[in-house]
Amino acid sequence: MIWLVVLLFVLFFLRIPIAFALGITSLVGLLLSDTDLVVIAQKSFSGIDSFTLVAIPLFVLAGEIMTVGGISKRLVNFAELLVGHLPAGLALVAVLACTFFSAISGSAIADAAAIGGILIPAMIAQGYDRRFASTLVASASTIGPVIPPSIPMILYGVMASVSIGDLFLAGVTPGILMAVGLMAYVYYVGKKQNIRGREKMASRKEIMVGLKDAFLALLLPVIIIGGFRSGIFTATESGVIAVVYALIIGVFVYKELTIKMLPKVLLESAVSSATILFVIANATLFTWLLSYHDIPDQLGDLVTSISSAPWVTLLLINVVLLIAGTFIDTISALTIFTPLFLPVATTAGVDPVHLGIIITVNLTIGMITPPLGVCLFVTSAIAKVNLAQMVRPLLPQLLILLVILVLVTYWPNLSLFLPHLVGGK
Protein backbone atom coordinates (compact mmCIF):
# COMPACT_ATOMS: atom_id res chain seq x y z
CA MET A 1 0.00 0.00 0.00
CA ILE A 2 3.02 2.30 0.09
CA TRP A 3 2.49 3.03 -3.58
CA LEU A 4 -0.91 4.60 -2.75
CA VAL A 5 0.75 7.13 -0.47
CA VAL A 6 3.41 7.76 -3.14
CA LEU A 7 0.67 8.35 -5.73
CA LEU A 8 -1.05 10.80 -3.38
CA PHE A 9 2.16 12.78 -2.88
CA VAL A 10 2.84 12.81 -6.64
CA LEU A 11 -0.61 14.29 -7.21
CA PHE A 12 0.04 16.86 -4.49
CA PHE A 13 3.30 17.95 -6.13
CA LEU A 14 1.54 18.15 -9.50
CA ARG A 15 -0.74 20.69 -7.79
CA ILE A 16 -3.88 18.64 -8.26
CA PRO A 17 -6.47 20.06 -5.81
CA ILE A 18 -6.31 18.19 -2.50
CA ALA A 19 -9.85 16.81 -2.66
CA PHE A 20 -9.38 15.47 -6.20
CA ALA A 21 -5.97 14.00 -5.32
CA LEU A 22 -7.54 12.09 -2.43
CA GLY A 23 -10.44 10.94 -4.61
CA ILE A 24 -8.24 9.80 -7.52
CA THR A 25 -5.89 7.89 -5.19
CA SER A 26 -8.83 6.20 -3.48
CA LEU A 27 -10.43 5.25 -6.81
CA VAL A 28 -7.18 3.71 -8.10
CA GLY A 29 -6.74 1.80 -4.83
CA LEU A 30 -10.29 0.46 -4.97
CA LEU A 31 -9.99 -0.59 -8.62
CA LEU A 32 -6.79 -2.50 -7.95
CA SER A 33 -8.06 -4.15 -4.76
CA ASP A 34 -11.15 -5.62 -6.42
CA THR A 35 -13.50 -3.84 -4.03
CA ASP A 36 -17.12 -3.03 -4.90
CA LEU A 37 -17.16 0.59 -6.12
CA VAL A 38 -20.38 1.27 -4.24
CA VAL A 39 -18.00 1.84 -1.32
CA ILE A 40 -17.13 5.22 -2.88
CA ALA A 41 -20.64 6.57 -2.33
CA GLN A 42 -21.11 4.85 1.02
CA LYS A 43 -17.88 5.96 2.69
CA SER A 44 -17.77 9.45 1.17
CA PHE A 45 -21.30 10.14 2.36
CA SER A 46 -20.67 8.63 5.80
CA GLY A 47 -17.77 11.06 6.22
CA ILE A 48 -20.09 14.07 6.13
CA ASP A 49 -23.25 12.39 7.45
CA SER A 50 -22.97 13.94 10.89
CA PHE A 51 -25.29 16.46 12.53
CA THR A 52 -22.33 17.94 14.41
CA LEU A 53 -20.51 18.73 11.14
CA VAL A 54 -23.35 21.12 10.25
CA ALA A 55 -21.56 23.45 12.70
CA ILE A 56 -18.72 23.90 10.18
CA PRO A 57 -20.69 25.74 7.43
CA LEU A 58 -22.51 27.68 10.16
CA PHE A 59 -19.25 28.93 11.70
CA VAL A 60 -17.89 29.68 8.22
CA LEU A 61 -21.01 31.80 7.56
CA ALA A 62 -20.69 33.51 10.94
CA GLY A 63 -17.06 34.35 10.16
CA GLU A 64 -17.99 35.83 6.77
CA ILE A 65 -20.73 37.96 8.37
CA MET A 66 -18.34 39.21 11.06
CA THR A 67 -15.67 40.07 8.50
CA VAL A 68 -17.98 42.41 6.56
CA GLY A 69 -20.08 43.51 9.53
CA GLY A 70 -17.58 45.94 11.06
CA ILE A 71 -16.49 43.63 13.87
CA SER A 72 -12.83 43.34 12.82
CA LYS A 73 -12.48 47.14 12.67
CA ARG A 74 -13.76 47.54 16.23
CA LEU A 75 -11.49 44.79 17.54
CA VAL A 76 -8.50 46.51 15.92
CA ASN A 77 -9.48 49.85 17.48
CA PHE A 78 -9.80 48.28 20.93
CA ALA A 79 -6.45 46.48 20.59
CA GLU A 80 -4.83 49.77 19.53
CA LEU A 81 -6.11 51.47 22.69
CA LEU A 82 -4.61 48.71 24.85
CA VAL A 83 -1.10 48.32 23.40
CA GLY A 84 -0.67 50.97 20.68
CA HIS A 85 1.54 53.14 22.92
CA LEU A 86 4.18 50.42 23.46
CA PRO A 87 7.32 49.96 21.31
CA ALA A 88 6.29 48.56 17.90
CA GLY A 89 2.76 49.39 19.03
CA LEU A 90 1.03 48.81 15.71
CA ALA A 91 2.68 45.39 15.33
CA LEU A 92 1.51 44.49 18.84
CA VAL A 93 -1.97 45.64 17.83
CA ALA A 94 -1.83 43.21 14.88
CA VAL A 95 -1.13 40.22 17.15
CA LEU A 96 -3.70 41.24 19.76
CA ALA A 97 -6.37 41.97 17.15
CA CYS A 98 -5.77 38.56 15.53
CA THR A 99 -6.18 36.97 18.97
CA PHE A 100 -9.48 38.79 19.54
CA PHE A 101 -10.75 37.86 16.08
CA SER A 102 -9.63 34.25 16.61
CA ALA A 103 -12.13 34.00 19.44
CA ILE A 104 -14.87 34.82 16.94
CA SER A 105 -13.97 33.36 13.54
CA GLY A 106 -12.29 30.00 14.28
CA SER A 107 -10.37 30.29 11.01
CA ALA A 108 -6.76 31.30 10.33
CA ILE A 109 -7.52 32.41 6.77
CA ALA A 110 -10.38 34.63 7.97
CA ASP A 111 -8.02 36.16 10.55
CA ALA A 112 -5.31 36.82 7.98
CA ALA A 113 -7.74 38.42 5.52
CA ALA A 114 -9.79 40.49 7.98
CA ILE A 115 -7.02 41.81 10.23
CA GLY A 116 -4.35 41.86 7.50
CA GLY A 117 -6.59 43.92 5.24
CA ILE A 118 -6.73 46.63 7.91
CA LEU A 119 -3.33 46.52 9.61
CA ILE A 120 -0.80 45.48 6.96
CA PRO A 121 -1.35 48.68 4.89
CA ALA A 122 -1.34 50.70 8.14
CA MET A 123 1.95 49.14 9.27
CA ILE A 124 3.56 49.75 5.88
CA ALA A 125 2.39 53.37 5.97
CA GLN A 126 4.09 53.76 9.38
CA GLY A 127 7.39 52.53 7.96
CA TYR A 128 7.34 48.85 8.91
CA ASP A 129 9.06 46.48 6.51
CA ARG A 130 6.49 44.92 4.16
CA ARG A 131 7.88 41.45 4.75
CA PHE A 132 7.75 41.80 8.54
CA ALA A 133 4.17 43.13 8.46
CA SER A 134 3.06 40.32 6.18
CA THR A 135 4.70 37.46 8.10
CA LEU A 136 3.61 38.79 11.50
CA VAL A 137 -0.09 38.89 10.59
CA ALA A 138 0.22 35.43 8.98
CA SER A 139 1.88 34.03 12.13
CA ALA A 140 -0.69 35.65 14.43
CA SER A 141 -3.54 34.30 12.30
CA THR A 142 -2.51 30.74 13.24
CA ILE A 143 -4.05 31.43 16.65
CA GLY A 144 -7.45 31.31 14.90
CA PRO A 145 -7.99 27.53 14.85
CA VAL A 146 -6.52 27.09 18.37
CA ILE A 147 -8.63 29.54 20.38
CA PRO A 148 -12.33 28.54 20.40
CA PRO A 149 -14.54 28.36 18.45
CA SER A 150 -12.41 26.26 16.10
CA ILE A 151 -13.47 24.56 12.88
CA PRO A 152 -10.61 21.96 12.97
CA MET A 153 -11.50 21.07 16.57
CA ILE A 154 -15.13 20.45 15.60
CA LEU A 155 -13.95 18.04 12.89
CA TYR A 156 -11.48 16.31 15.23
CA GLY A 157 -14.15 16.00 17.92
CA VAL A 158 -16.48 14.24 15.47
CA MET A 159 -13.78 11.90 14.16
CA ALA A 160 -12.29 11.04 17.57
CA SER A 161 -15.62 10.97 19.47
CA VAL A 162 -14.26 13.57 21.88
CA SER A 163 -16.21 16.34 23.62
CA ILE A 164 -15.99 19.47 21.47
CA GLY A 165 -16.56 21.56 24.59
CA ASP A 166 -13.46 20.00 26.20
CA LEU A 167 -11.46 20.65 23.02
CA PHE A 168 -12.54 24.29 22.98
CA LEU A 169 -11.50 24.75 26.60
CA ALA A 170 -8.21 22.92 26.00
CA GLY A 171 -7.32 25.35 23.20
CA VAL A 172 -7.61 28.50 25.31
CA THR A 173 -4.25 28.37 27.13
CA PRO A 174 -2.12 27.28 24.11
CA GLY A 175 -3.77 30.00 22.01
CA ILE A 176 -3.03 32.68 24.61
CA LEU A 177 0.53 31.36 24.92
CA MET A 178 0.99 31.70 21.14
CA ALA A 179 -0.22 35.31 21.34
CA VAL A 180 2.05 36.13 24.30
CA GLY A 181 5.07 34.56 22.57
CA LEU A 182 4.57 36.56 19.37
CA MET A 183 3.89 39.79 21.29
CA ALA A 184 7.07 39.30 23.36
CA TYR A 185 9.05 38.91 20.13
CA VAL A 186 7.46 42.03 18.61
CA TYR A 187 8.17 44.03 21.79
CA TYR A 188 11.82 42.89 21.68
CA VAL A 189 12.13 43.94 18.02
CA GLY A 190 10.47 47.28 18.81
CA LYS A 191 12.89 47.97 21.65
CA LYS A 192 15.95 46.86 19.68
CA GLN A 193 15.08 48.86 16.55
CA ASN A 194 13.55 51.78 18.48
CA ILE A 195 10.18 51.47 16.74
CA ARG A 196 7.89 53.85 18.55
CA GLY A 197 4.21 53.38 19.12
CA ARG A 198 1.55 56.00 19.66
CA GLU A 199 2.92 58.99 21.58
CA LYS A 200 0.32 58.98 24.33
CA MET A 201 -1.13 56.11 26.30
CA ALA A 202 -4.90 55.83 25.99
CA SER A 203 -6.85 57.11 28.98
CA ARG A 204 -9.07 54.86 31.05
CA LYS A 205 -12.11 56.60 29.56
CA GLU A 206 -10.92 55.93 25.99
CA ILE A 207 -10.29 52.27 26.82
CA MET A 208 -13.76 51.90 28.34
CA VAL A 209 -15.35 53.49 25.26
CA GLY A 210 -13.36 51.10 23.03
CA LEU A 211 -14.37 48.14 25.21
CA LYS A 212 -18.01 49.17 24.99
CA ASP A 213 -17.75 49.29 21.20
CA ALA A 214 -16.10 45.85 20.96
CA PHE A 215 -17.84 44.20 23.92
CA LEU A 216 -20.61 42.47 21.97
CA ALA A 217 -18.05 40.94 19.59
CA LEU A 218 -15.86 39.74 22.47
CA LEU A 219 -18.89 38.25 24.22
CA LEU A 220 -19.54 35.62 21.51
CA PRO A 221 -16.90 33.03 22.56
CA VAL A 222 -18.07 33.35 26.18
CA ILE A 223 -21.65 32.58 25.09
CA ILE A 224 -20.55 29.61 22.96
CA ILE A 225 -18.25 27.98 25.54
CA GLY A 226 -20.64 28.75 28.40
CA GLY A 227 -23.56 27.25 26.49
CA PHE A 228 -21.52 24.14 25.67
CA ARG A 229 -20.39 23.45 29.18
CA SER A 230 -23.77 24.15 30.75
CA GLY A 231 -25.50 21.85 28.26
CA ILE A 232 -27.78 24.61 26.97
CA PHE A 233 -26.89 23.88 23.35
CA THR A 234 -24.82 21.54 21.17
CA ALA A 235 -21.97 22.31 18.75
CA THR A 236 -24.38 22.62 15.84
CA GLU A 237 -26.77 24.83 17.79
CA SER A 238 -23.84 27.04 18.80
CA GLY A 239 -23.14 27.59 15.09
CA VAL A 240 -26.73 28.77 14.61
CA ILE A 241 -26.37 31.11 17.59
CA ALA A 242 -23.09 32.47 16.16
CA VAL A 243 -24.78 33.24 12.81
CA VAL A 244 -27.83 34.91 14.40
CA TYR A 245 -25.63 36.83 16.85
CA ALA A 246 -23.34 38.05 14.04
CA LEU A 247 -26.35 39.13 11.96
CA ILE A 248 -27.88 41.08 14.85
CA ILE A 249 -24.60 42.85 15.62
CA GLY A 250 -23.76 43.58 11.97
CA VAL A 251 -27.23 44.73 10.88
CA PHE A 252 -28.82 46.31 13.95
CA VAL A 253 -25.97 47.31 16.29
CA TYR A 254 -23.00 48.29 14.11
CA LYS A 255 -25.26 48.86 11.08
CA GLU A 256 -22.50 48.08 8.58
CA LEU A 257 -24.08 44.94 7.12
CA THR A 258 -26.93 45.58 4.68
CA ILE A 259 -29.46 43.19 3.19
CA LYS A 260 -27.91 43.78 -0.25
CA MET A 261 -24.58 42.41 1.02
CA LEU A 262 -26.07 39.12 2.26
CA PRO A 263 -26.26 37.26 -1.10
CA LYS A 264 -22.51 37.73 -1.64
CA VAL A 265 -21.76 36.69 1.95
CA LEU A 266 -23.95 33.59 1.59
CA LEU A 267 -22.34 32.65 -1.73
CA GLU A 268 -18.77 32.99 -0.41
CA SER A 269 -19.55 30.98 2.72
CA ALA A 270 -21.33 28.32 0.63
CA VAL A 271 -18.29 27.92 -1.64
CA SER A 272 -15.92 27.70 1.35
CA SER A 273 -18.17 25.20 3.14
CA ALA A 274 -18.64 23.03 0.04
CA THR A 275 -14.87 22.91 -0.44
CA ILE A 276 -14.31 21.82 3.17
CA LEU A 277 -17.03 19.14 3.06
CA PHE A 278 -15.82 17.82 -0.31
CA VAL A 279 -12.33 17.44 1.15
CA ILE A 280 -13.73 15.66 4.23
CA ALA A 281 -15.76 13.25 2.06
CA ASN A 282 -12.78 12.26 -0.10
CA ALA A 283 -10.38 12.11 2.85
CA THR A 284 -12.81 9.82 4.68
CA LEU A 285 -12.83 7.45 1.70
CA PHE A 286 -9.01 7.50 1.61
CA THR A 287 -8.66 6.79 5.34
CA TRP A 288 -11.18 3.92 5.04
CA LEU A 289 -9.01 2.45 2.27
CA LEU A 290 -5.96 2.70 4.53
CA SER A 291 -7.87 1.00 7.35
CA TYR A 292 -9.09 -1.70 4.93
CA HIS A 293 -5.45 -2.58 4.30
CA ASP A 294 -4.55 -2.43 8.04
CA ILE A 295 -2.30 0.60 7.66
CA PRO A 296 -3.16 2.05 11.14
CA ASP A 297 -2.18 -1.26 12.79
CA GLN A 298 1.03 -1.44 10.76
CA LEU A 299 1.81 2.16 11.71
CA GLY A 300 1.23 1.35 15.38
CA ASP A 301 3.55 -1.66 15.15
CA LEU A 302 6.19 0.47 13.43
CA VAL A 303 6.07 3.16 16.12
CA THR A 304 6.17 0.54 18.89
CA SER A 305 9.15 -1.16 17.25
CA ILE A 306 11.06 2.13 17.35
CA SER A 307 10.19 2.83 21.00
CA SER A 308 7.27 2.31 23.37
CA ALA A 309 8.04 5.53 25.26
CA PRO A 310 5.19 8.08 25.00
CA TRP A 311 7.60 10.98 24.39
CA VAL A 312 9.03 9.20 21.34
CA THR A 313 5.52 8.51 20.00
CA LEU A 314 4.62 12.19 20.37
CA LEU A 315 7.89 13.24 18.74
CA LEU A 316 7.21 11.03 15.71
CA ILE A 317 3.63 12.34 15.45
CA ASN A 318 4.89 15.93 15.56
CA VAL A 319 7.53 15.32 12.89
CA VAL A 320 5.04 13.69 10.51
CA LEU A 321 2.42 16.42 11.05
CA LEU A 322 4.90 19.27 10.63
CA ILE A 323 6.12 17.81 7.34
CA ALA A 324 2.58 17.02 6.14
CA GLY A 325 1.37 20.49 7.09
CA THR A 326 3.79 22.10 4.65
CA PHE A 327 1.91 20.77 1.62
CA ILE A 328 -1.47 19.43 2.85
CA ASP A 329 -4.21 21.79 4.03
CA THR A 330 -5.43 21.57 7.62
CA ILE A 331 -8.80 19.89 6.99
CA SER A 332 -7.33 17.21 4.69
CA ALA A 333 -4.43 16.45 7.03
CA LEU A 334 -6.75 16.30 10.03
CA THR A 335 -9.10 13.88 8.28
CA ILE A 336 -6.23 11.66 7.09
CA PHE A 337 -4.04 11.56 10.20
CA THR A 338 -6.58 11.49 13.04
CA PRO A 339 -7.65 7.86 12.36
CA LEU A 340 -3.98 6.90 11.95
CA PHE A 341 -2.54 8.56 15.05
CA LEU A 342 -5.44 8.30 17.51
CA PRO A 343 -5.02 4.55 18.25
CA VAL A 344 -1.23 4.90 18.37
CA ALA A 345 -1.42 7.84 20.80
CA THR A 346 -4.08 6.33 23.08
CA THR A 347 -2.04 3.12 23.31
CA ALA A 348 0.87 5.28 24.48
CA GLY A 349 -1.38 6.81 27.15
CA VAL A 350 -1.99 10.18 25.46
CA ASP A 351 -5.32 11.82 26.28
CA PRO A 352 -7.44 12.18 23.08
CA VAL A 353 -8.21 15.82 23.95
CA HIS A 354 -4.50 16.52 24.35
CA LEU A 355 -3.80 14.82 21.01
CA GLY A 356 -6.44 17.02 19.36
CA ILE A 357 -4.65 20.17 20.53
CA ILE A 358 -1.27 18.80 19.40
CA ILE A 359 -2.64 18.03 15.92
CA THR A 360 -4.37 21.42 15.65
CA VAL A 361 -1.30 23.44 16.68
CA ASN A 362 0.90 21.39 14.34
CA LEU A 363 -1.33 21.90 11.33
CA THR A 364 -1.84 25.62 11.98
CA ILE A 365 1.93 26.04 11.92
CA GLY A 366 1.79 24.35 8.51
CA MET A 367 -0.44 27.21 7.35
CA ILE A 368 2.57 29.56 7.48
CA THR A 369 5.14 27.06 6.22
CA PRO A 370 6.08 27.11 2.50
CA PRO A 371 5.34 25.80 -0.05
CA LEU A 372 1.59 25.61 0.80
CA GLY A 373 1.41 28.19 3.61
CA VAL A 374 -2.05 29.50 2.71
CA CYS A 375 -1.94 32.32 5.28
CA LEU A 376 1.32 33.52 3.75
CA PHE A 377 -0.37 33.69 0.35
CA VAL A 378 -3.19 35.81 1.82
CA THR A 379 -0.92 38.31 3.59
CA SER A 380 1.70 38.46 0.81
CA ALA A 381 -1.05 39.47 -1.62
CA ILE A 382 -2.14 42.26 0.74
CA ALA A 383 1.45 43.45 1.32
CA LYS A 384 2.40 42.93 -2.35
CA VAL A 385 5.57 40.99 -1.57
CA ASN A 386 7.01 37.81 -3.05
CA LEU A 387 6.58 34.66 -0.97
CA ALA A 388 10.32 33.91 -1.18
CA GLN A 389 11.10 37.31 0.38
CA MET A 390 9.06 36.42 3.46
CA VAL A 391 11.11 33.40 4.53
CA ARG A 392 13.82 35.23 6.50
CA PRO A 393 11.55 37.44 8.66
CA LEU A 394 9.27 34.43 9.17
CA LEU A 395 11.94 32.22 10.77
CA PRO A 396 12.03 33.75 14.31
CA GLN A 397 8.22 33.79 14.44
CA LEU A 398 8.11 30.17 13.29
CA LEU A 399 10.69 29.24 15.95
CA ILE A 400 8.52 30.79 18.68
CA LEU A 401 5.50 28.77 17.55
CA LEU A 402 7.60 25.58 17.45
CA VAL A 403 8.77 26.17 21.04
CA ILE A 404 5.14 26.56 22.09
CA LEU A 405 4.30 23.35 20.21
CA VAL A 406 6.95 21.52 22.27
CA LEU A 407 5.43 22.92 25.49
CA VAL A 408 1.93 21.90 24.41
CA THR A 409 3.16 18.42 23.47
CA TYR A 410 5.15 17.56 26.60
CA TRP A 411 3.16 19.51 29.19
CA PRO A 412 -0.34 17.98 28.91
CA ASN A 413 -1.81 20.00 31.78
CA LEU A 414 -1.16 23.17 29.82
CA SER A 415 -4.10 22.11 27.66
CA LEU A 416 -6.02 19.84 30.00
CA PHE A 417 -6.22 21.85 33.22
CA LEU A 418 -9.15 23.99 32.02
CA PRO A 419 -11.33 21.05 30.86
CA HIS A 420 -10.49 19.24 34.11
CA LEU A 421 -11.19 22.36 36.20
CA VAL A 422 -14.56 23.02 34.59
CA GLY A 423 -15.45 19.32 34.49
CA GLY A 424 -14.51 18.86 38.14
CA LYS A 425 -11.89 16.19 37.45
UniProtKB/TrEMBL annotation:
GO molecular function: transmembrane transporter activity
Compartments reported by the entry: Cell inner membrane
Keyword check for Cell membrane: yes
Topology term for the membrane: Multi-pass membrane protein
InterPro entries documented for this protein: DctM (IPR010656), TRAP_DctM (IPR004681)
Pfam families, per database record: DctM (PF06808)
GO cellular component, as recorded: plasma membrane
Predominant location category: membrane
Keywords: Cell inner membrane, Cell membrane, Membrane, Transmembrane, Transmembrane helix
Protein name as annotated: C4-dicarboxylate ABC transporter permease
Organism: Effusibacillus dendaii
